[in-house]
Amino acid sequence: MAEGKKFGTFEGVFTPSILTILGVIMYMRLGWVVGNAGLLGAIVIIVLAHVIAVTTGLSVSSIATDKKIGAGGIYYVLSRSMGIPIGGSIGIALYVGTSLSIALYLIGFAESFNDYFGFGLAINDIRLTGTLALVGLTILALISTSLALKTQFLILAAIIISLIAVFFGTSNFQPETVQLLAPRHAVSMEVVFAIFFPAVTGFTAGIAMSGDLKDPKNSIPKGTLMAIGVGLVVYIGLAVFLANTVTTDVLISDYNILMKIALFSPAVVAGIWGATLSSAIGGILGGPRILQAMSIDKITPKIFGKGNGENNEPVNALLLVFIIAQAGILIGELDVIARIVSMFYITAYGFINISFFLESWANPDFQPTFKIRRWIGLLGFMACFGVMFKLDTLAMFGALIVIGGLYFWLQRKEVKLQTNDVWQSVWENVVNKGLKKIDEQQVEKSNWNPNIILFSGQSDHQSYLLQLGKTVSGRTGIVTNFKLILDTSNSQPLKKSEQIVKSEAFKELGIFGRQIKVSNIYDGITTIASAFGFSGVEPNTIMMGWPKGLENSKEYSKMTQTLLYLDYNLLYLDFDKKAKFGTYDTVDFWWRETDSKNAEMMLNIARFIIASPRWNNTSIRVLFVNNNNVDKKIIHTKIYKLVEDLRVNVEIIIINNAVEQKPFYNLIEEKSKVTDLTIIGIPNYQIEKQAEFVLKTNHLFETIGSTLLVKASNNFNVLDLDFAKRN
After folding, report:
1. How big is the chain by its Cα radius of gyration, in Å?
2. Please, what is the angle between helix 422-440 and helix 334-362, to 10°?
3. Residue-wise DSSP of 55-78
């Protein structure tokens, strides 16, 4: 097994990367690319592919110089920045892509090897040669990683010699003119790009060896970017050379054209075999380390995390790589595998780029020593998914569905790491910028986005108050439930971490929970109402149960005065413990001339109620007490204009009360006795009459079901309900 040796930039990153870049696609398909796309088209394809490679290389290099890089390469980087669900889902995709790329390289090797020795080019012949090569390379990797890496120096020398032989060769296929654009009979540019793209994925071979590097933070940026840069120069130079040396028809039809034009063809043969075999070795060495790292993080079965020897060689993971690579070899078609590998890699690269963008944008602790512009990551992300969409939309959605499925599976698995991921920073940044935007906006009276402080107390029916609180807050409103712990001894307050209350009920409803110690319940409510919140999301509504038995309480009276002075919307629920909310079928809104502000708040509450799943089939009635003998048609028309924006059928009932002059509460008792929820406005009254108001309201609540009392703040518009003065 391998010795406990760590590798430097050249042997650990640059060499495995450049050998994979200058691999099977360069020798076996670059001429075909130039023939089908024309010289300009080929250069566009090469440059576009390298835009993705360069942006991804820059992104991963920047992340690598910020975080401690462990074994697993790109998977390790993503899981420590984006979190386990994304890191794991992309890591699995990258692992499968790396394993299949081994098959790509060995099929290319088999094509050249069989053609050179005349062993036959039938699909079964290719499969046999590819399988034997895979077995030999796997044995080499099992013997020694160090030995496998050292063979790469000989292969690199062979590639350099082969390129010299090609550039100094002669051609019997000299074109009369250079074909700049794609010929009519050419394959589509999308297919050409998909087959070419694996040529630029080789830079991940060095990153995958991160756990075996002496100094990954220094070696990964240098080695990766050097390999990508050298590869770009070689590919463009070779494309220009081929376009000027060989006719289009020959480039398209002859995959072995480089051997035929070379100064010394055996040198090209050695280069092809060396490049394909070394690329396969890169995958055989890198792929298992990705799987091993994921298994150590408990994403994949722990059996693949076990290693042998001083260097913890991933033998079990290597055997699974062998199986996947063998499955690819059995496909036997280089072009088919190239397209599959492209999708896996482009998807992974897209997420690597967005990972860097989010890290640099949102994470205040992101301080890489290798600094690049933030927009580079965003450009790489858009380029990846733009290319995927153009190449194969169906395959792109398929890849996203597979990765999305892996993501949600890992989320449910709840694998935890002792490390922060970037998403918390992202949300904090979004919230921070959103709050600043909200704070800059002038508050419009016509828009009410509820931010409710809820005092639900501790009772058997607390859940119903929580439920209604969430209902009247709407889809975007905020509800914070406060539990007040009475502590008359004035002991130490709760720690900040202890003040946060989490429960399944709160989580299901989307309610925030807090608890604090108070020496007096009413003073505690006043203090919270005065101090809780911050710019941008100031609470605007207080909600609590109806205060039965407190009609003579001076403390309650003082609290009410303070809440009115602070200009909160007030919501009091009297909950019918027997009927509860009935069947959630009927809601009555009671209006009178004094509800000029309350009426608009009730309309907003109505909008939120009918949008709630529990109340979506409810029948709403607006009942108006006509104490001044105004024409019912006039009242009906004006109320209809107010409620038509609800976009639901609202029954408007006008109760003529000019003659009988029945008390308001008596009318409510008659009309809303069996209503599931009755909503009534609290009139303006002097605080010294609070006791009288509470007693009358208590009597009302004895005869009707659950009732919500509403007192609107000055932020609501005045709806003129005094119709008498207009007639």
Report:
1. 36
2. 50
3. HHHHHHHHHHTTS---TTTHHHHH
SS3 653: strand
What's the pLDDT tens digit per position in 154-181?
888 999 999 999 999 888 888 888 899 8
Which of 166, 184, 236, 186 has the alpha carbon at shortest distance from 35?
186
Backbone angles phi, psi at 156, to 5 degrees: -60, -40
User: Taking Cα atoms as reference points, which of 566, 570, 556 lies closest to residue 532?
Assistant: 566
What CA–CA distance (Å, rounded) separates 549 from 574? 13
Element (H, E) at 133: helix 123-143
Spatial separation of the C-alpha atoms in residues 304 and 316, rounded to whole Å: 5
Helix axes 216-245, 30-64, angle to 10 degrees: 160
The distance between the two most distant Cα atoms of the chain, rounded to a whole number of Å, is 116
φ/ψ of 674, rounded to 5, equals -110, 15
DSSP, collapsed to helix, strand or coil, labels residue 543 as strand
Q: Do residues 664 and 625 make contact, with C-beta atoms less than 8 angstroms apart?
A: yes
What tens digit of pLDDT does each residue of 228-259 get? 999 999 999 999 999 999 999 999 998 889 98
Percent of the chain with pLDDT over 70: 88
Give the Cβ contact number of residue 115 at 10 Å.
15
Tokens of 697: 């309201």
Residue written as tokens 């001339």?
593
Helices 30-64, 74-81: axis angle to 10 degrees equals 50
Tokens describing residue 286: 């890198």
**Helix H or strand E encompassing 140:** helix 123-143
Four-point Cα dihedral 38, 166, 258, 237, nearest 10: -20
Contact 216, 210 (CB under 8 A): yes
| Pairwise CA distance, residues 309 & 640, whole Å | 82
Per-residue pLDDT tens over the stretch 461-482: 788 889 999 999 887 788 999 9
Instruction: Render pLDDT for 543-556 as a digit per residue (tens, 0 to 9).
Output: 998 877 777 778 88
pLDDT band at 146; cut points 50, 70, 90: low
pLDDT at 560 over 80: yes
Q: Which has more pLDDT, 569 or 404? A: 569
Whole-Å CA distances, 666 to 519, 547, 630, 653: 40, 21, 21, 16
- Tokens 């858009």: give the residue: 382
Record the tokens describing residue 98, joined without a space: 């790396």
pTM recorded for the entire structure: 0.64
Residues 570/710, Cβ–Cβ less than 8 Å = yes
Confidence of residue 3 (pLDDT cuts 50, 70, 90): very low
**Between the CA atoms of 307, 309, 315 and 318, what dihedral angle is there, to the nearest 10 degrees?**
100
Single-letter residue type at 626: N
- Local structure of 707: helix, strand or coil: strand
Alpha helices, H only, 332-460: 334-362, 374-391, 393-413, 422-440
Query: Which structure tokens are listed for 377?
Result: 């990551």
Average pLDDT, the chain: 83
Q: Residue 673: is it exposed, middle or buried by C-beta count within 10 angstroms (0-12/13-18/19+)?
A: exposed
Neighbour tally for 285: CB within 10 Å? 27
- The continuous run of DSSP H or E covering 330 comes out as helix 315-331
Q: Which two tokens stand for residue 186?
A: 């050419």
pLDDT score of 536: 65
Q: How many CA atoms lie within 13 A of 355 on its CB side?
A: 33
Q: How many residues does the chain have?
A: 727
Instruction: Please name the amino acid found at residue 231.
Output: G
